[in-house]
Design brief:
The chain contains seven helices and eleven strands. It is α+β, with helices and mostly antiparallel strands. The protein has two domains: 96 residues; 91 residues, no CATH class. It starts with a helix and ends in a 10-residue tail after the last helix.
Length: 240
């Protein structure tokens, strides 16, 4: 479903004339619908790490190099996914500005476990790497739209662009925003309206169906054997 189709469906469902174009249009209704579609898509992308917005990143450590570039479409890290595939250990990520300064100013210049600090769109690794290990991680992308051919993009530029997030959710959310913008539903009525309740229910169903909506089940109480193994001491075991 294209951006234009979403705008046309919303206009038709609310009793307004269907626009023939939205991108570059001088028509006030088309301009408003396009703006609301952008707002809704951005809002939905912030709400949940939709599996179609998750990508894998990788980079090699360079001995003596502390900082590394993030992908141009980087938005947020997926927590707990940044690992050293060479050493088979997780990186501690992300750390705060305060923790980074503590780490840099203490006499800790080496160590098997690395920490990740993100600043100025760069990944800083501390202690500074002294090897060429391969690092892999997952992140959410800024490319919340796609061309009709499926190429990701961060902005709507033509009517035939589509949303990466489920289109029916974008349409439902845009319709709600449009109804409020046109004063067909007041802000006081919004939360209890059928449209808002149905929209929220559809979002929750979509989250449960999406890959990241499925929770891990633990059969071993509160412990996690994998993480316990990841932090097992490598050497210098006590003799008693």
């Amino acid at each position: 479903m294209s951006i234009l189709t979403i705008a046309q469906n919303v206009a038709t469902a609310t009793g307004f004339s269907s626009p023939t174009s939205v991108v570059g249009s001088a028509d006030e209704l088309a301009i408003q619908l396009l703006s609301l579609i952008r707002e809704e898509t951005r809002s939905l992308s912030d709400r949940f790490p939709w599996q179609k917005l998750v990508k894998r990143g990788t980079f090699p450590f360079v001995s003596g190099t502390e900082s590394y570039s993030l992908p141009t479409d980087f938005k947020d890290f997926i927590p707990g996914t940044i690992w050293n595939y060479t050493a088979r250990r997780p990186l501690i990520a992300p750390i705060s500005s305060q923790d980074y300064e503590i780490q840099k100013n203490y006499l800790i210049s080496s160590g098997i476990d690395k920490m990740v600090y993100v600043y100025n769109n760069l990944i800083y690794i501390t202690p500074t790497p002294s090897s060429a290990d391969t690092i892999n991680y997952e992140y959410t992308t800024l490319n919340i739209y796609q061309t009709s051919g499926g190429v990701g993009k961060a902005a709507i530029t033509v009517d035939t662009d589509v949303t990466t997030i489920p289109e029916y959710l974008v349409e439902m959310g845009t319709k709600l925003r449009f109804l409020v913008a046109k004063s067909l539903i007041s802000t006081a009525e919004l939360q209890g309206s059928y449209e808002a309740l149905d929209y929220e229910a559809q979002i929750q169903r979509a989250i449960l169906k999406d890959g990241f909506g499925r929770k891990q089940l633990s059969m071993s109480g509160r412990s996690n054997a994998w993480w316990m193994g990841a932090y097992t001491q490598d050497s210098d075991y006590p003799s008693a």
